[in-house]
Structures are given as structure tokens and as C-alpha cells.
Write the C-alpha cells for this entry.
Amino acid sequence: MTRTDYIVVILALCALPWLYIKYWSTNDTATNVIISTYDNKKIILPLSENKTINVKGPMGENIIEINNNKARFINSPCPNKICIHSGWLEDTNDVAACLPNGVSISIGNRHQEFDAINF
Amino acid sequence: MNLTLTTTREDHLIAWLTALAVTIHVLESTLPTPLPGIKPGLANIITVVVLVRYGIKTAIWVSLLRVLIGSIVLGTFLSPTFMLSLTGATASVVVLVVLSQLNTILPFISFGAVSYAVFAACAHMAGQFFMAYLLFLPHPAMFKMLPLFMTAAVLAGILTGIIAGTLLNRIQTQDVSSTNNTSNTG
């Protein structure tokens, strides 16, 4: 190993803790609730405002509650109620969806087009 | 119709070295990995050895051909895995070009095998990570994985760099002893 090699290795090892600090210590708190509806509309609401929203879909109405910086489905016309069982969304980028009724909610601080793409 | 293909000595050299790299690449793919995207990158050893011994041009050929042929052998050609692999290889080749140019322009820096391997591994990881982010998981939570991936890349780079350095030393001593032998007999 040359002298430069030692310097490069030491620099690389020093850069790693910086990466951990940069990406693991940020807590970007969610400020918005993003509700996507069946007809591709996006409703963005502040997470700080406590309220209950009714969203229409092909099967009926979903009722979404925003309370204490958290959001959840409280009623849904779908058969399995998976959206309701998802519970409170409290961490940034949490998502809950009611697929039969085409309504999904997520909390975050900016608009996100995709959640994941798979092949 | 008779088609003749004239090959140079350099073509043969690239072919042999690529075959070696592909073999390592394929063997390595059978090793279990803790996380998709993390592997020792042992084929990197060949790229670094080739870069030091035969220059950057041969190294570029060997590195990119290795990804292409390796993917055909493994059956991942044009699949997402291949895209990530190709992006990573391209990124590491670009970094190696810069480093080898720096080495010729400023000889006092003298990057060795370990520097090349560490930089190449990090560039490979960064390249495939950002491609994965752009293509498959454009989600901010993805960046939480970056430190883990880069740690693996740095460790793998140091490991492959040390192996490449040892290999280069052995080749050099062998060269010296073989030239001594010929001078003795001649």
C-alpha cells in the first residue's frame, strides 16, 4: 500500500460516520396529509388541523380523521376494512389505502408521485 | 463467403482477462448476500489489476464486457439487475479514468491498488444506488439505506484492493524472476 492508499482508506472510513449522521439523524416530521381519490384527485391538508373528511369513491364514502398530527381511516364501505385496520399514520411517508374504493392517504411533507415500482 | 477477422494481441489479452473476470463474477453470484446489492465485488480485483498492469483502456473493456457477458451467462441480461450492474460498472469506470489521469498528471499522488479499489467500489455502489432510486424506489426512505450500502462498499473496496495489491506484487516478483531465468539461461 502506498501512502496515498492509507490516506484514501482513512478518508473513506471517516466519511462513513458522516453518512450515518446525515441520513439517520434527520427527522423530517410530516406536515401534510395527502389524500388520493378514485378520480385521481389529490387533496392536501395540514396535519396540524384536527378534522374529519368524507371522501367519495365508487363504493361509497370513506371517512378519514386527522387528529393530533396523525391520520387514519375511521369508516369505509369496503368488505375487508384493511384501510381501517392500518390504524394511525404517524411516521413520515406512512401510507394507508382502501383499494376497493380507490382512496389512499399518506402523510409527508411533499408531494410524492410513486411509492414503489416493481417488475 | 469467407469472413476473416484479424485480431490483435491486445484483443486476445482483453478476451483472456474478461474470461477471468466473468468467471469470478459468476462464481461470486452463488454466494449468499445479506442484502440485495451488497456483495464483495471480487471481479473488481481483476479490473484493478488490469488497470495497474495494462492501463485504463484495457480496464474499461474488461470491466464493461464482464458486466455484459456475466449477465448473459447468469440470465439477467437487460433485467433490472443488469441495469444496476451496468450503471455501477460505468460509474466505477468513470472514476477510475479520473484517478488514472490524475496519477499520470500528478505523479506524486501515486494512487495504489487499494485507492483504485475503494474508489471503484464506492462509485459502483453510488451509481447502482441512485439508479435503483430513480428506477425502482423513488422514495425518500431509500436514503436510510445509503450508509449501510456505502459501509459495505468501503469494506469490500479495502478487501479487494488488498487482494489486488498482493496479486500485483506476486506478478511483479514473478516477472523479475522469469527475466532473471531467461538471462541466466541465455
